[in-house]
Design brief:
single chain, mainly alpha, Arc Repressor Mutant, subunit A, 3-stranded antiparallel beta sheet
Amino acid sequence: MKKLEVAGAVERDLRAVRQLMRRPLDAMIAQGGLTGPQQAAMTVLVKADGLSLKELSKELGLAHSTVSGIVDRLEKRGMVERTTDGADRRVSRIVPTKQVREWVRETMPELERHPLAEALAGATEAERKAVAEGIGTLRRLLERAAE
């Protein structure tokens, strides 16, 4: 196989693996009725432990008015709160509620790891070793190429 053919095959396989690993998380998010942009906003807000609307817009790469609408809908659902910034009372910060922070930090990672852990549990020791070595090799090759 040529280099570009191998790269294309690996990229397709990695995309498929990502989709398979995200299925339980995507299903739970769909049950909660969150849109993709709402989910992205929640993830950013939890990682940053709150941001101003301007900062959130920049992080998401979306227009201020779009993000304002996303935040309004999340606030109505009780998922975020607007608080006054301690350093500058003119600025409001958008922070996730305690329940949301706990879900993103505790439940979400488990949902993301579950398919992989389950698949590896059904593998032989040799298969698990081959997967770990192959992924490690790919990572090292990518890091070397990035240098």
